[in-house]
Structures are given as C-alpha cells and as structure tokens.
Amino acid sequence: MGSPEFCDSMAYAPERVYDDKMGKNRRVDEMWTGDWWWQAQDKLAPGGTVGALVISTDKTQLSTFRGDKQAYPVYLTLGNISKDVRRQPSRHAATVIAYLPTSKLKLFKNNSLASYRLFHYCMKQVLAPLVKAGRDGVDILCSDGWYRRVHPLLAAYLADHPEQCLVACCAQNRCPRCVVPWNERGEYVESASRRQVDTLRTLNLQNEGEYPDEFVADGLKEVFAPFWADLPHTDIFRYISSDILHQLHQGIFKDHLLKWCQTLVNPGANLDDRFRAMPPYPGLRHFTDGISKIKQWTGGEHKEVQRVLVAALAGAVNADVLTSACALIDFIFLAQYHSQTTETLTRMEEALKTFHDTKGTFSTQRDHFNLAKLHALLHYIDCVLFLGSLDGLNTENTERLHINFAKRAYRASNRKDFITQMAMWLQRHKAVAWWDRYLDWRLEICAGATIGLDAEGDELQRESQEPSKESVSVGRTSPFPNMPVSSLIDNFGAHHFTTAVTGFLRVRCALRPNFEPSDIDTYNVFGSAVVHMKPRPFINVKKLDVRVYATPLEELGGRKGTVPPRWDTVLVEVDSDARRHFGGLSGLRVAELRVIFKLPSHLGKINEPLAYVHWFRELNVSAIEPNSGMFKISKSTRHHLPYGEVIPLSRIVRPCHMIPYFGTGRVPRAWLQSAPADAHDFLLNKYIDVVMFEDYVVHYKQYGISI
After folding, report:
1. Using CA atoms, how far apart are residues 478 and 686, in angstroms rounded to an integer?
2. 0.85 cut: is pTM over it?
C-alpha cells in the first residue's frame, strides 16, 4: 500500500458510479465501487481506511516427469489497487505469503476431514496478525505520501470449487455460498445464504455433542476452529468470489455444454469439419484437426471454442439446442465484462433464466442437472454487486502467478527441502525487484532534472503523435511496390479495379484531365493494416488494436509449399449519421478486404491509404437468423462478379468474422483446404469478441428485437 509505483492506481475510499443522472443505471467495475467496501467503511471509526485484502489459494504441480512434488501457495493482493494493475505479474501487485502443507494424511482414518482441519489450522496461523490489525487499524505511509489509519480486512477469497468448499467447511456436493439442498442445485431457485454467525453456532453445538439438525442439513464438516472465525468484520461466505475460469470456461462450458452439443449434432454433420473450415480472424485459433482430438484443454482453448461454437452448430442441431447454447454463452460473455451496469446484469439474469427454461432439451444427455457449477451461476450477479466486476477476481490470474512464485522457484532449488529454498529464492528476488524499482525511480529523477523544461514540449509532441480513438494505419513502406493492375486482377481478384478507382476519384472530384486511371498504372500495395478500435468500458484497452490482412497466395518454394490467400472481412462505415445516432451495427456494412494501396502521384494528391473491397449485402433486420441471432447475408454481385468498390481505408471501423452457414449437411471437402469463398450464405459472428457481442445487443434494442 505504500509502494510509490501504485500511486496512480490506488483507491482509499468507496465510490458509487452511475451512467445516468437519475441514478438508475449503476456501474460496477473496481472493487471500491461494490457494496462490500461501503459496508466495511461503515463499520470503521471515523478516519479509518479500508485495506481490501484479496486472498487466493491453489495447489499446483511442480514436478513434470517424475515425483509427485506439489506446492500450495497462498497469494495476497490489495483490492485498493486497480484490477488492471493486479492482473499484470510484472507490476508485482501480488505476493505469496505462505506455502501450505500438501501431505496426503494417509495415516488418518478420515483423511478428508483431517485435510480440512489442517488447512484451517495453517491459515489461522498465517492470518493471525490480521485480527488485531483489522480491528484496531495500523498507521501506514501510503503511496501518495499521506499517513492513514488502515484496517486490513479480508474482502475476497479466490479459489476453485473444491477449495471454496474447503474454506466454507462444507461438503463438495454443496454450495459454499448458500444452503441449497444437494438435489436442487439444478433448479432456478434462490436459497437462503449461509451466514457466518449461524454456521459458527452450528459448529459449536456439534462440537459440544448436541448434534443440531442444521449441521447435516447445511452439509457442514466438523471443522470447529475455522480460520475466519476471529477475523474482524468478516462474513466469509459472501467473500467467496465467483470463478470464471473453473466454473464457466472449464466447468459448465467445456465439461457439460460442449459435450452435450457434440452428442446432439445431426448424423450428417461433422462438427470437427466445421471447425476445420472456419475462416481465419486476427487472434483466433484455427483448429486444424477439429476439437474432439484435443487432449489437454486450457482456458485459452475454451475461450476460442466459445467464439465460434454457435455458428458451427447453426443448422447442425435443432432450434431448442441452439437457443439454450446461445443463452449460456451469452451469460459467459456478459460475466467477463470489465465493467458492469444494472443493464448488463439484467441481461445476465435473463440469459441464465433462458438457459434454465430450455435446458430440458439436453435431458437425453443427463438424468439430472444437479451440478455444482451450474448452481454457482445463480450467485454471479450478487458477487458482482458486492465485490466488483469478475475480471479482477478471476483465478486465471492466480494460475499465472504459479509460474513466478512456484514453478520458477522450484526449478531453482535442488529438489530437496525445496519449500525452504523456494521461500529464500522468492525473498531474494523480491529484494532485487525492490532495488530495481528504486534505481528506475532515481534514473527518472535524474533524467527529469537534466531535461528540464524540454520535457513538457516532448510530452505534448508525443501526445500529438498518438493515434486518434478510432483510426486505421499502414506501414511506412510498401511490401508490394509498383504492382501492375494485371497482377491485382490475377493475384488479388480485383476484377474491376481500374473502374473502381475511377469511380472513387470522380466522387471525390479528384479526376485530373488527361490523367485518368488506366490498366497500365502501378500501385504501392500493402499486405495488412492496423485497425485502432474505439475504447469501450467493458473491454481491455490492450485489445483495441487489430491487424487485418489482404494477402494473395504465396509460394514459399521447396518443401515449404504455399501460404493460402487471406482476405479478411471488415465493417465499413457507410452512413455516419445512422451510426452516430443509433450506434451498434447501424450505418455499417460488411466488406471483404481485397487490396490495400496508395494512389500513384500522377492520379492526384490523395495521400491517405485506400482499400478495394468486395461488398456483402446490407445488414437488414430481415436478414437475422432467428435461432442464432446472427445476420445471415450473402456477397453482393454485379453482372455475376463480386461488387467491388474503392473506399478510404479510414472508413474501416473494425474487423468482423464471416462464417459460412454450413446448414444441415456435411462440409464440402474443398472448404477444408482453403477459405470457403464460394459459400452462398454467411453468418456475421456475434461471439467473435465482446465488442461485436455488445454491438449486436445495441442493434437489437434499436429494432425492438428479443433474441
């Protein structure tokens, strides 16, 4: 809390943020915008400051080929630090405070109960200093240079489902947040929340031999000294955070929904072939062998499959299956928003209700839906309102910390008494990191003193050179200089290129007498461009720059073969007024990017990069496919050839993913070898990223569509 490098990303007081003047649409993102912080602040004496402690535990495997070496680190970070900073391991916003025992406890008759008790005993020792510090407060010199009376309070606990039950002292077939019966976890019903006071009373009565009915009804374990019992201002059951990685990606999606859908695909459709025939998209993984042969799944594979699953299923499953799958994937996408509002949380609730209403279509795959990870979805909205958006509470961040705090430390040991050596290694590396940051600070001070007044001018120059909020840029030099029109026709498929250039110049009133475009002209052509998308509050700002490609077939020579052509599809602004007034997909049209080029000097003084595109048909409401909720459109033609036009590259708003509508049958063999350019209908992929997902929702609202 006193580290100067966190000065600009540290908060000391709770906030309430609203998107409207009436205060009806609340926005929740950072932890200090959640209800917990306000409740904790009310419990402190005037002048007290909340120190929001976020603790996570997770076992990890250390040895790879032999031995069964494990580590059980306890990580600590501060909710006062912005979640964007906490997610970056290089910022050192998280640290390991203990390694818990990993013994199997085979000597005990009930080793499961023994492991519960050992865990709570160890955690009680680790967190013992928080009892007095949280109650009385500690004077701390904060990162902004001010002293504050800080009360370090447990705010959130991050863990997967087995460890959540371990923390809650309940059986693994029960919910760690509420007392829902084990055989009702598949229902869309709200159960009474667990309360720390009631649970401690029940455990005490059980310890005294009174055997209360609540002990069995609540599914508790005989852990009579939970580590959280003495922590001040704590209700541990509300502090157990929802877990996107294990509950959504690895849990309800991969372990259940994906398997159900794979089984229900029509006999004539091959789901693996549909994944193999997926057109490329910037940053999208291409499953060259399908998905059924993946042996080891990670969070990355789960997310990639979610982006294209609905389009792959369209036509291959009945309408009810697709509706149910869409509802669950809608919920998963909404849960990952970096900033939530009352409106987005309402949509989460509606998506979850739709899934429960339609999940009966999977009844042939399961006898019941009493799944712990399905029930956990009922608590997501409450968790967001209480602790902030879930991207800052994802155990995916914990998995990344294992590399620095466990695996690298283990590799630096001699594999004997490795925990002690790991602790020493981490202590030394922490000291080096602190010294390194001190040197950086000193060098910055010295550099500032040397530069003096010139620093302000340089800063203004840098700001002026930064790209605008929404723009498109190309490289400084062309990789395909002086390319003749004949090559553009043969290699890039630009059949009416000269005519399109002439039309563009005529519209711009830039045609020069005696200097009209001709087929003997040459152009500087670029193979790609970078699209700088507009920032949105619900996405990571680091994912705004996307590279789009327009490259022909490339012969590598020898055994390397060839690289297939790539013509990315983009959304182009065709009506600026409609886009400005309505937002979403209004005023946009899909185009296939064919040539990125600049005009030769003899054709005028237009220096901005241009693009030759092949248009798709317009995005009309009637073109929305009802089951998937996606636009189903075909390519636009003129005289049986693609309708091409030259546009300023700056009119490109963002890339988009056009997936062929596979229908009910098999995928043509030719589509497995190259991009399916000859498909008749395409789906504008709604789930390619959260920006497109949100733009679809805005478009639905404009026309009053409920899908």
Report:
1. 33
2. yes
